[in-house]
From TrEMBL:
Protein name: ABC transporter ATP-binding protein
InterPro entries xrefs: AAA+_ATPase, ABC_transporter-like_ATP-bd, ABC_transporter-like_CS, BCAA_Transport_ATP-bd_LivF, P-loop_NTPase
Protein family: Belongs to the ABC transporter superfamily.
Species assigned in the record: Aminithiophilus ramosus
Coiled coil ranges: none
Upper lineage: Bacteria, Thermotogati, Synergistota, Synergistia, Synergistales
Keywords of the record: Amino-acid transport, ATP-binding, Nucleotide-binding, Transport
Domain ABC transporter, residue spans: 6-238
Length: 238
């Protein structure tokens, strides 16, 4: 593997002292697009929140660009270059697209830096530029998901964490959103996405991890996982 950007080493984490992630490890090379796939409640969101610094592991550690970050808070991990797009979009519904995007750059107070962020994001999402003055709640689910992803890019992350992008979207929109993720990755951003839509996620990923009740049970290239009889049976109904 080329240079590792992220290493999750044997973490245990959970809620109120009760672990729901039991010794999970994974690693991501700079430039990769990696998927964590698994069923509802398997621990995908908990893993993402822990990497983002919204929760801290009871044991184990998380290393980002060679430094241990598992004790840092979310505002510090975002400064280091980790951006988390949570499940369920969470836009400010009464604000316009541009206002939502500008809030995504909250760690950058400098107007010039915010404008550069907007320029970069609008290049990736030309449709959002045309609709930048539209209020978020008047957009479709797919469009709102694009805004949520774009907002995640405003802090100019090195690692983008995408939580369950497909939630509540029609299949045709899921495909569009996945194409966008590929474009973001090609633009140089390392991506870790978690998905219940296993096939869709593995079709765009380089590598994948299968998570079950808080533990990684299978890992490999996305191609190998797509061909795996266990994965096909458990998650694709094949
Ligand atoms: P989903 O796709 O439904 O979000 P997931 O794979 O992301 O599923 P998590 O949300 O990480 O799974 O949940 C993992 C386990 O942790 C589940 O058993 C869940 O009930 C539990 N859990 C999640 N959030 C909390 C919380 N705030 N307090 C207590 N337990 C929680």
């Amino acid at each position: 593997m080329t240079e590792r950007i992220l290493e999750v080493r044997d973490i245990q984490c959970g809620y109120d002292g009760v672990p729901v992630i039991h010794g999970l490890s994974l690693e991501i090379a700079r430039g990769e697009l990696v998927a964590i796939v698994g069923a509802n409640g398997a621990g995908k969101t908990t893993t993402m929140r822990t990497i983002a610094g919204l929760m801290h592991p009871y044991r184990g550690e998380i290393v980002f660009e060679g430094e241990v970050i598992s004790r840092l808070e979310a505002h510090e991990t975002i400064r280091r270059g980790i951006s988390y797009v949570p499940e369920g979009r969470r836009l400010f519904s009464k604000l316009t697209i541009q206002e939502n995007l500008e809030l995504g750059a909250f760690i950058r107070k400098d107007r010039k830096v915010i404008d550069e962020g907007l320029k970069r994001v609008f290049e990736l999402f030309p449709k959002l530029y045309d609709r930048r003055r539209q209020v978020a709640e008047t957009m479709s689910g797919g469009e709102q998901q694009m805004v949520a992803i774009a907002r995640g890019l405003m802090s100019d992350p090195k690692l983008l964490l995408l939580d369950e992008l497909s939630l509540g979207l029609m299949p045709s929109l899921v495909e569009k959103v996945m194409e966008t993720v590929v474009a973001i990755n090609r633009s140089g951003v390392t991506v870790l996405l978690v998905e219940q839509m296993v096939q869709e996620a593995l079709e765009i990923a380089h590598r994948g991890y299968v998570i079950q009740t808080g533990t990684i049970v299978q890992q490999g290239t996305a191609r190998d996982l797509l061909d795996s009889p266990e994965v096909r049976k458990a998650y694709m109904g094949l």
